[in-house]
Design brief:
The complex is a heterotrimer of chains A (528), B (376) and C (72). Chain A has 18 helices and no strands. With 528 residues, chain A is mostly helical. Chain B folds into 3 domains: 109 residues, Orthogonal Bundle (Helix Hairpins); 143 residues, Cupredoxins -  blue copper proteins (Immunoglobulin-like), CATH 2.60.40; 98 residues, Cytochrome c-like domain (Cytochrome Bc1 Complex, Chain D, domain 2, Orthogonal Bundle), CATH 1.10.760.10. The chains are: A mainly alpha (528), B alpha+beta (376), C mainly alpha (72).
Chain lengths: 528, 376, 72
């Protein structure tokens, strides 16, 4: 059978592909690359997590105890960049690599060698970011949003960060082109677009968003670079530029980025809930339209991150209305998931627990998002810990919880071994409780007036900060349970997984044996 | 709409009770809601927030009531058989349209407040606010005086060598003073990077952007001291540039303003005066502490790899003209900002101080006239 | 070998893949170049125009392509 991966990598016929390290460096197999993405993302999750714990250790009490303010700023900056670009986004791409070909009945991704390249660009970018901590002047300390003119002041750590962003952007764009092409051109016969599992739909739309906005970010940081070294003044008022324009361009990238982070999570949850409710997804078509609606709206709401820069009143009103409007398609999705659960026959294995935890906590993040979209309230809450709490509810309890659910959901298919249900349930409850202890009090801090990104704070914020730090350390250590559960499963230490470990699973991947063979669907399945 | 009430609702008391389980001491350490408002805008913001929070709470209870009912009743372990419905256009339309209508209901008061917030017309007085790394300055444009406002909390408290005071990190040497019941318009800008002027009790937050002037306003209706902070990351000392506003009676304000005007006239001083080395280093020490010590440190050692030492540096012991140029114009692409906004006497004093403090002993005593000559 | 012509005909699938990829890459290039060029010329409205036009272009492309595939 001559299929696409064979064209790219002659000799990869499943019998004598290279072993050891060379296998992973040269691989063009979507499953290997998916695995690489997921492990890379976990490693970055740990690195970013250590930075978060450094931040929380410093904020445990008022006064400066652990780090000095400049290093503290580097920590907040790198924590943001590493978690967004190093942990969450690669994890989503890892899921896409593993699952999209299996869900649409394709033999592999459309461009297998480009797939290898998009992954192997990431480790150098991560190395640039981490080594920037050790160069003279320290790492970038201007926040992950990189606002000039503060970014013009930094040392060479800033330049390393800019290059890292360039490389990660290139990686994302290539990955996205690959995903869109795979979904559009390689579906099995009979698999029409409106029959695809919802995970493929959310990724298709995410990939379009990435292709549109990653170049914008790359453009913005390129202009920063030329402002820093080549005497241009895009963002320098003294030379006729405007620092606020950077913010417009950055958030034109940054708001769709929020949906790039959450849409794949929506997709995973939309696979998990019907399986464990033993009932088809409610309102499939409206889910697709809601996803597309969210994506389109995400291009016209960016300036709600900038209500306090002093926009004209008409601008504030427009962005406030457009932002609030996003609540409508997002609400439709929540209601559809609830209707899927309604009158189902539910069981609550770890993937379902994470999906329900996602629904509950993501909705809370959605409500605080609605509060923040109201411009007059945002004038108080902008750049406070309320915002920090809000985006951790949607990114951690939202995306990350959905990814945990997805990992437990598909681990039996990936490894051929069932994960340890008791350990996974412990991981869920530990994460759920410590997450809320860490982040719920931050709402109070924000309301009471604590700005974000400060290494030291006034006395009236002391108690909630202490509680938040305790929760954060608990959450950090809870993730070791996750590592244990995954490693146990990967080493084959557990019950053997059947081809269809979940009674309600009716998508194509469950028709394959567990673990999924190295090459799948070389003969396309027929979809009725 | 519900007006902001002084009494604490049940939820507040429950929460406070919960918080009492925490180890730490003072009640003030666990503020959990908006600060007491002192302007009508801040009051409207709080009302709006309560209004929207209650709507959210109602939706939350409704939606998750349904979810938890379903979780407990529609589970396999209680023998529930799955229905197979998966579409209903009517329901989809309802749960698209109803949230939309709820949003319209929220947008009306929000729009009213934002129109009021943005209306900076016909102020009674105007103050220009400038953000610096890392302090604020206030210029009373109609009265022709102005001053800097620096953090007053001693370093020993920040470094945990002394007990922290009541207003730790929220105290300054010279607060912004304004009269009560007066519409004060602020013209807000910055000298180096973006800062943000924020006083929670006034509900006012406005970014200070270098090269651009933005405005905001407030009308405080209670006499008192109100504290805020810079709200936009502006570098190393971002957490250490508070804002303190004293709202005083109109009479007190008139007296204060008159005193400030007299002081401003006197501060011009005699430009021909020749200063002694001791006078210069004494004054220079104060200027250094307020403007330079944040980076170069009180001991002149700087911070390795970030901010250069002055103690023994080539600049502070080399030619005077080079050092004056750097202090006046800053150094491109570094954190060293231009300090030409300081007076000739202050600059002469601080340069003299750095050339004679710590291990530096050049013996130079710069005169204000030299700075004046170096200004272009 | 399954009787699935679109899959067995490797050349055609590959050509289609490359066409899709080039179209997508050109969108990325327009956004990258557009944002800098617009800034260089100094017009914020120009920037918004370029970006908005490109959004519509790629939407039109995606929808149009889908319709065309459906008709075939």
């Amino acid at each position: 059978m001559s299929s696409i991966p064979h064209d790219h990598a002659p000799g990869h016929d499943g019998h004598h592909h290279p072993t050891g390290l060379m296998r992973w460096i040269t691989t063009t197999n979507h499953k290997d690359i998916g695995t690489l993405y997921l492990w890379f993302s976990f490693a970055m999750f740990m690195v970013g997590g250590v930075m978060a714990l450094t931040i929380r250790a410093e904020l445990f009490q008022p006064g400066l105890q652990v780090v000095d303010p400049e290093f503290f700023n580097s920590m907040t900056t790198l924590h943001g960049l590493i978690m967004v670009f190093g942990a969450i986004m690669p994890a989503a791409v890892g899921f896409a690599n593993w699952m999209i070909p299996m869900l649409i009945g394709a033999p592999d991704m459309a461009f297998a060698r480009m797939n290898n390249w998009s992954f192997w660009l990431l480790p150098p970018a991560a190395i640039l970011l981490v080594t920037s901590l050790f160069v003279p002047g320290g790492a970038a300390a201007a926040g992950w949003t990189l606002y000039p003119p503060l970014t013009i002041q930094g040392g060479m750590g800033m330049d390393l960060t800019i290059f890292a962003v360039h490389i990660m952007g290139a990686s994302s764009i290539m990955g996205s082109i690959n995903i869109v092409t795979t979904i559009l051109n390689l579906r099995a016969p009979g698999m029409t677009l409106m029959k695809m599992p919802l995970f493929c739909w959310t990724w298709l739309i995410t990939a379009y968003l990435l292709i549109a906005v990653m170049p914008v970010l790359a453009g913005a940081v390129t202009m920063l670079l030329t402002d820093r070294h080549f005497g241009t003044s895009f963002f320098n008022a003294a030379g006729g530029g405007d620092p606020v324009l950077f913010q417009h361009v950055f958030w034109f990238f940054g708001h769709p980025e929020v949906y790039i982070i959450i849409l794949p999570a929506f997709g995973i949850v939309s696979q998990i809930i019907p399986t464990f409710a033993r009932k088809p997804l409610f309102g499939y078509a409206s889910m697709v339209y809601a996803t597309a609606g969210i994506a389109i709206l995400s291009f016209i709401v960016w300036a709600h991150h900038m209500f306090t820069v002093g926009m004209p009143t008409a601008g504030v009103l427009f962005f406030m209305y457009a932002t609030a409007l996003i609540a409508v398609p997002t609400g439709v999705k929540i209601f559809n998931w609830l209707a899927t659960m309604w009158r189902g026959s539910m069981t609550f294995e770890a993937p379902m627990m994470f999906a329900v935890g996602f629904l509950f906590l993501f909705t809370m993040g959605g409500f605080t998002g609605l509060v923040l979209s109201i411009a007059p309230i945002d004038m108080q809450l902008h750049d406070t810990y309320y915002v920090v709490a809000h985006f951790h509810y949607v990114m951690v309890a939202g995306s990350l919880f959905a990814f945990f659910g997805g990992i437990y959901y598909w681990l039996p298919k990936w490894t051929g071994t069932m994960y340890d249900e008791k350990v996974a349930q412990l991981h869920f409850w530990a994460s759920l409780i410590t997450f809320n202890v860490a982040f719920f009090p931050q709402h109070f801090l924000g309301l009471a007036g604590m700005p974000r990104r400060i290494p030291d704070y006034a006395q009236q914020f002391a108690d909630w900060n202490m509680l938040s730090s305790i929760g954060a350390f608990g959450f950090g250590f809870s993730q070791l349970i996750f590592l244990y559960a995954v490693v146990k499963c990967v080493r084959g230490n557990g019950a053997k997984a059947p081809a269809r470990p979940w009674e309600g699973g009716d998508t194509l991947e469950w028709t394959l044996p567990s673990p999924a063979p190295y090459h799948t669907f070389e003969t396309p399945p027929v979809v009725k | 709409m519900v007006r902001f009430s002084q009494g604490r609702p049940l939820a507040a008391r429950l929460l406070a009770g919960l918080a009492a389980l925490l180890p730490a001491a003072a009640h003030a350490a666990r503020e959990w809601n908006f600060q007491q408002p002192a302007t009508d805008i801040a009051r409207q913001q709080i009302d709006l927030h309560s209004f929207i929070m209650w709507i959210c709470v109602a939706i939350f209870i409704g939606v998750f009531g349904v979810m938890f009912y379903s979780i407990f009743r529609h589970r396999k372990s209680v023998g529930h058989k799955a229905a197979q419905f998966h579409e209903n256009t009517m329901v989809e339309v309802v749960w698209t349209v109803v949230p939309f209508l709820i949003l319209l209901f929220m947008m009306y008061p929000a729009t009213k407040t934002i129109l009021a917030y943005k209306d900076t017309s016909s102020p009674d007085m105007t103050v220009k606010v400038t953000g610096y790394q890392w302090k604020w300055s206030y210029d009373y444009l109609q009265d022709g005086f102005g001053f800097y406002s620096n953090l007053k909390t001693p370093l020993a408290q920040i470094q945990n060598r002394e007990a922290k005071g009541e207003h730790y990190l929220l105290e300054v040497d010279n607060p912004l003073v304004v009269p009560v019941d007066t519409k004060v318009r602020l013209l807000i800008t910055a000298n180096d990077v973006i800062h943000a002027f924020w006083v929670p009790a006034f509900g006012l937050k406005q970014d200070a952007i270098p090269g651009f002037v933005r405005d905001g306003w407030f009308r405080a209706d209670r006499v008192g001291t109100y504290r805020g902070q810079c709200a936009e990351l502006c570098g190393k000392e971002h957490g250490f540039m508070p804002i303190v506003v004293e709202v005083v009676s109109k009479d007190d304000y008139a007296k204060w303003a008159a005193a400030q005007k007299t002081k401003a006239a006197a501060a011009g001083g005699d430009p021909a005066k020749v200063w002694t080395l001791n006078e210069l280093t004494a004054r220079g020490g104060d200027v250094y502490a307020a403007n330079c010590a944040a980076c170069h440190q009180a001991n002149g050692k700087g911070v390795p790899n970030a901010f250069p030492a002055l103690d023994g540096s080539k600049v502070a012991t080399g030619p005077k003209a080079d050092q004056i140029a750097i202090v006046l114009e800053g150094k491109a692409n570094t954190a060293m900002a231009a300090f030409k906004q300081l007076s000739d006497a202050d600059l002469a004093a601080v340069v003299t101080y750095t050339r004679n403090a710590w291990g530096n002993a050049t013996g130079d005593a710069l005169q204000p006239a030299e700075i004046k000559a170096a200004r272009k | 070998m399954a009787p699935a012509p679109s899959r067995n005909d490797d050349g055609r699938v590959r050509a289609a893949n490359v066409r899709t990829a080039l179209a997508l890459a050109s969108i990325a290039a327009v956004f990258f170049g557009g944002v800098i060029a617009a800034k260089f010329m100094g017009g914020w409205t120009t920037g918004m125009g370029v970006v908005g036009f490109a959004v519509l272009l790629f939407l039109g492309f995606a929808i149009g392509r889908n319709l065309w595939r459906g008709r075939r």
